[in-house]
Amino acid sequence: MMNQEFYNNSIFCLISPKLKLTTLTVLASLSFLISDWRFHATSLLIVSLMCSIAGIPYRKLIKHLRSTFYLLLIIFITHAILDNWQDGLKIILRFSVLIFFAMLVNLTTSISDMIDSLTSLLRPLTCIGVNVSKVSLALSLMIRFIPLVISIFQEVQIAQKARGLENNLIANIIPAIIKTLKMADNIAEAIEARCWE
Amino acid sequence: MIKIENVSVHFDDFYILKNINLILLEKKIGIIGANGSGKSTFAKLINGLQIPDIGSVEVDNFNTKENGKQIRRKVGFVFQNPDNQIVFPIVEEDIAFGLKNLNYGKVEIEKIVNATLDYYDLSYLRQHQSHSLSGGQKQLLAIAGVVIMKPEYIVFDEPTTLLDLRNKIKIFQVIENLTQTVIVITHDLNLLENFDRVIVFDQGQIVADDVPKIAINHYQTLMYDEPRIL
């Protein structure tokens, strides 16, 4: 959900984020309910076309698909061995459709719009005691602090490397966890200081 | 007016702050002291992030112990490390966070955010990821995120410690131009020259409280005479 680039000139930016997220949910459900390979192939074609209209380069789509390549390959091989290769292919098509569509939604929706929409879609859950604003803040914090936590781990790794401890798991993990927890405390204070109730 | 009466903060037998009595009326107040002297704890007392174990802190007659919500609306707080203060991944979203908490409407938020981004020369960064900004830009963003909430007082806890000289000067110019009452904790003594009052802390107590020149001299003498690592 971390959109590094934002295709704000695309016509898909004009579509309500709520509609995009609902469509993604419906498409995901249909993909698992319908097993006909022609449905998945047609969906993939349509979604690819939509990505192209949105101006997302194909190499970017392939790059994202490549990151899940090994997972898809394992699924395909498992199906080919235990069942038949046609089912394996169907699953690959199904996942490709969902990955492409999720990318389309992600790259054409700003993070704040995404969080606002999720908050609004989750609002009915307030009746069962879910604090929706807390969920939405947690989502924002997660997106905001992933790069920060990664940089903390990298800093610790470099510091330990300088001391000749690059292969010592404990020397790398413990300080990073302590630093992350301390940061979490500071962030909680900062949120409180900014009138979060 | 900030009124601090007989305030002590302790951890078991160790006193972080001991019997502090102060009335703060000036517009620009500097707080200096060695590491571990209680400066940051003192700063947190002012906006209720730290509640005193003994005594009371009042901001415009609101007690920090009982009126946390009102106090935090009145007193903004800028932390030393902006990375701990910036909550949202996108610059303009982070600036808007405080306003959302104060229940401003969407249109009004957009208008105020635009004006603030323009004022702080951050407009060209509005859609940027906050983690990719430079240290100076992050601190400016953190300040903008607090100022936008229109607090009457702003406490700065070592806002220039992580910055280079150019960014230090820029941030201090921003602080000097603020119309609010500001309380700045810093180790950059030369930046306090134009302040109205400087208070020196040592081992949890106030050891000097005067105009900048006299207070800074006292602090420097103290540090040279009793060097120690805390």
Largest beta sheet of chain B: what is the strand line-up? Answer: 6-7-8-3-9-10
Radius of gyration of chain B (Å): 18 Å
Q: Measured on Cα atoms, how large is the radius of gyration of chain A?
A: 21 Å
Structural class of chain B: alpha/beta
> What is the CATH first-level class name of the domain at 2-84 and 152-225 in chain B?
Alpha Beta
Head-to-tail CA distance between termini of chain B:
33 Å
What would you call the shape of chain A? globular
Q: Main β-sheet of chain B: number of strands, strand sense, barrel status?
A: 6 strands, mixed
Q: How many separate helices of chain B? A: 7
Number of helices of chain A: 8
- Return the CATH architecture of the domain at 2-84 and 152-225 in chain B: 3-Layer(aba) Sandwich
Q: Estimate the strand proportion of chain A.
A: under 5%
Estimate the global geometry of chain B from the Cα principal axes.
Answer: globular
